[in-house]
């Protein structure tokens, strides 16, 4: 079921008219649907019904808005965090510290201490040295840090190079063959309880085969470590499941993913952990924008909108496709380029795309913008930080303010010696 539907000719999010949100909050603005977030959380969990012992930690980086986190906390999700800031958000939103997993390739000592003092559930180590440092910091405080070692299975995830993480050339994890040596050196050290393995090979995966290959390697490593006398009780299988961005595109369903996981992990006898981000938040949000101009050109017209690459960076960064839909489609279609106002050609959302015919002043949305949208926004070109709205049935709330240039300047200082 889709909670972003046209009704009587205009787009609604659940029971709220998108035009009403534009009127109240202005544009550009991200709009999230609570019902969609909840449904995705439920479908992902149901997909894993064949996995008896599991822990699901929403990847906060996908959308760290406090209201979004609260919805997922209420749905029983924990959090996968990659910074002290995300950790603070997860806890502030109501996630139990024990349900927080701390990933991240460059955790600082201060962040490790924050994790220990917060009492988080698990540290996912990215290198051996991090384990020694964590053990020392925990032992000093009379604590025992629960940890797993992230391995790099050297699998090609078949996704965009910038969001691929499981090849030997990527910065993440330790070479899987090094795991036994690292376990031997870290296991039994005071201050750390090294209890398993983590893996995450990339994001927006449209094929389960690379995931299955990675998980099989992890399964072999679990057996090797156990044969070496180690107690393995937890395996973190990461995130990565793709979502459809283009009309008609299909992706492996959470159910298909869950069946694959259940099949591959038979007999592992561990708690399986998951870190889904995009599959929960991606299709639960849109970026609402207003057309500023339709500018003729020698070729396709340029539809210049009031959202830009600073609000939604994915097209500029990864050539990502976000569907563009008019809030009040006339039924006519045009072939156009879509761009924002920022002063570089990279600020282009689409080239030569067939879209709903729009005119200056019309509203439209970029779809599938709930994940890696607002969280990657900046204020480049001294544009306002884009606001966010959460819809719940027939009500909506501003859940993150527009931070305009005046507020931005308030945080800057011109030294008195200038
Ligand atoms: N776990 C770890 C360790 C991760 O690095 C990531 C994402 C996830 C879980 C969640 O992955 P997901 O289920 O969302 O695919 N900005 C990029 C995506 C970067 C993903 C980074 N890591 C984009 O806009 O496509």
UniProtKB/TrEMBL annotation:
Superkingdom to which the source organism belongs: Bacteria
Record's catalysed reaction(s): meso-2,6-diaminopimelate + H(+) = L-lysine + CO2
CDD domains: PLPDE_III_DapDC
Coiled-coil segments on the chain, per record: none
Cofactor(s) demanded: pyridoxal 5'-phosphate
Pathway: Amino-acid biosynthesis; L-lysine biosynthesis via DAP pathway; L-lysine from DL-2,6-diaminopimelate: step 1/1
Entry binding sites for substrate: 278, 314, 318, 344, 372
InterPro entries: Ala_racemase/Decarboxylase_C, DAP_deCOOHase_LysA, De-COase2_C, De-COase2_N, De-COase2_pyr-phos_BS, Orn/DAP/Arg_de-COase, PLP-binding_barrel
Protein name per UniProt: Diaminopimelate decarboxylase
Residues given in the record as pyridoxal 5'-phosphate binding sites: 240, 275-278, 372
EC number: 4.1.1.20
Organism of provenance: Sphingomonas yantingensis
Gene3D superfamilies registered for this protein in UniProt: Alanine racemase, Lyase, Ornithine Decarboxylase, Chain A, domain 1
Similarity annotation: Belongs to the Orn/Lys/Arg decarboxylase class-II family. LysA subfamily.
Modified residues (N6-(pyridoxal phosphate)lysine): 61
Pfam family, any one: Orn_DAP_Arg_deC
Assembly notes: Homodimer.
Keyword Lyase included in the entry's annotation: yes
């Amino acid at each position: 079921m889709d909670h972003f539907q046209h009704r009587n000719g205009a787009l609604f999010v659940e029971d709220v008219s998108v035009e009403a949100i534009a009127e109240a909050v202005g544009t550009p603005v991200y709009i999230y649907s609570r019902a969609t977030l909840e449904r995705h959380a439920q479908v992902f969990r149901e997909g894993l019904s064949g996995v008896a012992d599991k822990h699901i930690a929403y990847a906060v980086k996908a959308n760290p808005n406090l209201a979004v986190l609260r919805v997922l906390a209420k749905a029983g999700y924990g959090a996968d965090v990659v910074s002290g800031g995300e950790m603070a958000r997860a806890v502030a939103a109501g996630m139990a510290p024990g349900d927080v997993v701390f990933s991240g390739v460059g955790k600082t000592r201060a962040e490790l201490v924050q994790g220990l003092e917060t009492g988080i559930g698990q540290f996912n180590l990215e290198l051996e040295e991090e384990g020694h440092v964590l053990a020392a910091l925990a032992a000093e405080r009379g604590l025992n840090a629960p940890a797993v070692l992230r391995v790099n299975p050297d699998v090609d995830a078949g996704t965009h190079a910038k969001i691929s993480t499981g090849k030997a050339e990527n910065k993440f994890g330790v070479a899987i063959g090094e795991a036994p040596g690292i376990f031997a050196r870290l296991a039994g050290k005071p201050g750390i309880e090294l209890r398993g393995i983590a893996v995450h090979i990339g994001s927006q995966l449209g094929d389960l085969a690379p995931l299955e290959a990675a998980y099989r390697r992890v399964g072999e490593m679990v057996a090797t470590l156990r044969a070496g006398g180690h107690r393995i009780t937890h395996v973190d299988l990461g995130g990565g499941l793709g979502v459809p961005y283009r009309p008609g595109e299909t992706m492996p369903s959470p159910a298909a993913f869950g069946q694959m996981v259940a099949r591959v992990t038979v007999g592992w006898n561990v708690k399986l952990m998951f870190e889904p981000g995009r599959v929960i938040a991606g299709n639960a949000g849109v970026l609402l924008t207003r057309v500023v101009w339709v500018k003729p050109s020698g070729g396709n017209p340029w539809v210049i909108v009031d959202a830009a690459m600073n609000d939604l960076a994915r097209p500029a960064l990864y050539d990502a496709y976000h569907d563009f839909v008019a809030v009040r489609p006339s039924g006519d279609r045009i072939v156009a380029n879509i761009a924002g106002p920022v002063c570089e050609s990279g600020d282009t959302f689409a080239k030569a795309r067939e879209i709903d015919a729009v005119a200056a002043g019309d509203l439209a949305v970029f779809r599938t913008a709930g994940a890696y949208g607002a969280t990657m926004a900046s204020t480049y070109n001294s544009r306002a930080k884009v606001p966010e709205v959460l819809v719940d049935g027939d009500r909506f709330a501003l859940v993150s303010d527009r931070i305009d240039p005046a507020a931005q300047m308030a945080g800057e200082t011109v030294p008195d010696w200038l």
